[in-house]
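Shipment paperwork, digital attachment
Item: protein structure file
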Amino acid sequence: MRLPGTKPIIIVEGLTARFGTNVVFENVSFQVYKGEILVIVGESGCGKTTLLKMMIGLQSPSSGKVLFQGTDIISASGKELNNFRHNIGVLFQSSALFSSMTLKENIALPLQEYTNLDRATIDLIIKMKLGMVNLAGYENHYPSELSGGMKKRAGIARAMALDPIVLFFDELSAGLDPVTAVELDNLIIKTNEALGTTMVIVTHELESICKIAHRVIMLDTKAKGIIAEGTPLELKEKATDPRVRSFFLREAPEESSQDTYYVR
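Attachment content:
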């Protein structure tokens, strides 16, 4: 499935993650289309976070390419990588806010690093981004003064500081209560619809997947790669691979000789 009238903004080609003799996944290929929310799922240890780190240039693959608007970030020069990082926002599971800094100082970091904006403009952007995630007035609060959900929203505000083309999230709802998780899902949908921001999200929360994902790819430990691709509804209703059905229908897993099953 692809969104009508869109082109790939990211192309992953033949990506392999190998650590010594341990192959996490191999020859993984897929595309991310402009304006879509792509969710990466799979059991623990299948390489979801490793794949995400390779897509943002934090980890090098054993082989393969990650093309962002035609530039391979795996072999990119310093200037090309700097341009790439200016166009993406990242939020890992821990939110990664600096505890010794206020929210204002945290969000100012990427603006100071990648722009030449004056202090007044940076302050205005900070207020706008915090307002977008319903944290207006919290500029001078420290992370320790916030709840888990508020920290995640503050992390999203920082990830959006540079108006990125693509946002990457790793286990956004992990450790949050159901009400807060729903609020974050709604924020993701609102941001995508209002700004057209492309998003790549790693999660195992089935309810969130069915609510926010335009398309899903599923990794499998034994297959060492992608075993399913499609919309949440397609994977839930049409997939025949027992591993996919086990995940989306919460059925007891069965052994399968199938290595790959695509739902189009």
